[in-house]
Design a protein that fits this description.
Aminopeptidase, 327 residues, seven-stranded mixed beta sheet, eight-stranded mixed beta sheet, alpha+beta, 32% helix
C-alpha cells in the first residue's frame, strides 16, 4: 500500500535512507548533523508545498518518495526515492515514481531530480524512465563529500529537445531500447533483427561521442514524460559542403506511433540545422516506409531512388529513396 507519509513514520523513513546509504562506501548518515528534517518529514514537505508518500507491506515500510516545487523554471523536484532491498525488483520503485510524477506533472512543466554520482543503479532506473543528465554536477559540503548528477525531463505533452554530451550519454539505455524495438518492427536503419542490446548501446555510445565532438546534433522526444523518439542531424560534411547536413535515424517507439512524434522531431531537426548554419538537408529511406510519406508531406523533394539498396530481414532487397530539402 502506498499512502501519504506522516511525521509518525519518522523511524521508517530514517531506516530506509540509512540502510540505502550503508550500501555505498563513503556515504555517512548523520541524522542530527545533516538530516534533522527526517524526524518530521511530512511537516517539512508540507512547509515547502510538496507531498510525501510511504509504501507499506505487511506492516513494514518498504519504500518512500516525495516531490516539491523548485521555485524556478516551472519545475518540481522528485525527492527521497528509496526502496528497501527486500522490495527491489518488484516494480515498487516504478509505482512510487508514478505516484510522485503524477502529482508533480499536474503542477509543473518539468521534472528534476538529483542523485549521488555513486548510485549507479539509481541512474539506470531514472534513465529507463526517460530522465537525462542536465546541467552541472552539484558539489555538497557534507560529511559524505557528495557529488550529485542533475537529471530532468519534460513533465507532460509532446516536447522535443536537443541533448548535450552528458544528456546523450545518459540516454543510451533508453535510446537502445527504442532502436531495438524499431528494428524488430521493420525499420530500415542499417540494422537487421534481432538487434543485440550490446550492439545498440555501442551505436549510441558512438553518437554521444560525436555529440561531444560537435559533429552531430541529437534530438529526442518525450510524450507525457516518456522518452519515445529521436532523430539526428549529422554535420560531419566535407570541407566544400559546410552548408549541408544529413538527417539520420528518425526513430519513434512503435507504441507511440501516430501521435505526431515523428513530425515534431523532423520539424525540430530542421530548426536545429538552420541554427548551426545548414541550409541544405539530405536523407534517405526505404521506399514504401512510413517515413517516405512523412517526408513528402513536410516538403522534402525526391532526388531519385536506388534499386536493391538495402537487405531486409526476409532476405529480399528494397529500393532506397533519396530526399533533399532547402531551408
Amino acid at each position: 500500500m502506498i499512502r501519504a507519509g506522516q511525521d509518525s513514520d519518522a523511524e521508517a523513513f530514517i531506516r530506509l535512507i540509512r540502510d540505502a546509504w550503508a550500501e555505498y562506501p563513503g556515504c555517512v548518515f548523520d541524522l542530527d548533523a545533516e538530516l534533522p528534517e527526517l524526524r518530521a518529514l511530512a511537516t517539512h514537505f508540507a512547509k515547502i508545498g510538496g507531498a510525501l508518500w510511504i509504501a507499506v507491506q505487511d506492516g513494514e515500510a518498504v519504500g518512500m518518495v516525495g516531490t516539491a516545487p523548485l521555485g524556478s523554471d516551472d519545475a518540481w523536484e522528485i525527492k527521497r526515492l528509496y526502496v528497501a532491498a527486500s522490495a527491489r525488483g518488484t516494480g515498487l520503485a516504478h509505482r512510487l515514481l508514478d505516484t510522485a510524477e503524477a502529482h508533480a506533472a499536474a503542477r509543473a512543466e518539468r521534472l528534476v531530480l538529483w542523485t549521488d554520482t555513486r548510485f549507479a543503479a539509481a541512474h539506470a532506473f531514472y534513465e529507463k524512465r526517460g530522465y537525462v543528465r542536465s546541467g552541472s554536477i552539484r558539489i555538497l559540503d557534507d560529511l559524505s563529500k557528495s557529488l550529485e548528477f542533475r537529471y530532468a525531463k519534460p513533465a507532460r505533452g509532446l516536447v522535443v529537445e536537443a541533448l548535450d554530451a552528458a544528456g546523450a550519454a545518459s540516454a543510451e539505455r533508453r535510446l537502445s531500447r527504442i532502436l531495438i524495438d524499431c528494428v524488430a518492427d521493420g525499420a530500415s536503419v542499417s540494422f537487421l533483427p534481432p538487434l543485440a542490446p550490446a550492439t545498440a548501446q555501442a551505436f549510441w555510445k558512438r553518437v554521444a561521442r560525436d555529440v561531444a565532438g560537435g559533429s552531430r546534433l541529437l534530438l529526442v522526444a518525450w510524450l507525457d514524460g516518456a522518452l519515445v523518439g529521436t532523430v539526428q542531424v549529422d554535420c560531419a560534411t566535407p570541407q566544400n559542403q559546410p552548408h549541408r547536413a544529413e538527417i539520420a535515424k528518425l526513430l519513434v517507439d512503435p507504441a507511440a506511433r501516430s501521435r505526431g512524434v515523428g513530425r515534431a522531431l523532423m520539424a525540430r531537426a530542421e530548426q536545429a540545422a538552420r541554427g548551426v548554419g545548414r541550409r541544405l538537408l539530405t536523407l534517405d529511406t526505404n521506399a514504401g516506409d512510413a517515413g517516405e510519406a512523412l517526408y513528402r508531406a513536410m516538403g522534402w523533394q525526391e532526388a531519385g531512388r536506388i534499386p536493391g539498396y538495402s537487405l531486409q530481414a526476409d532476405g529480399t532487397y528494397r529500393a532506397t529513396v533519396l530526399f533533399w530539402k532547402t531551408l
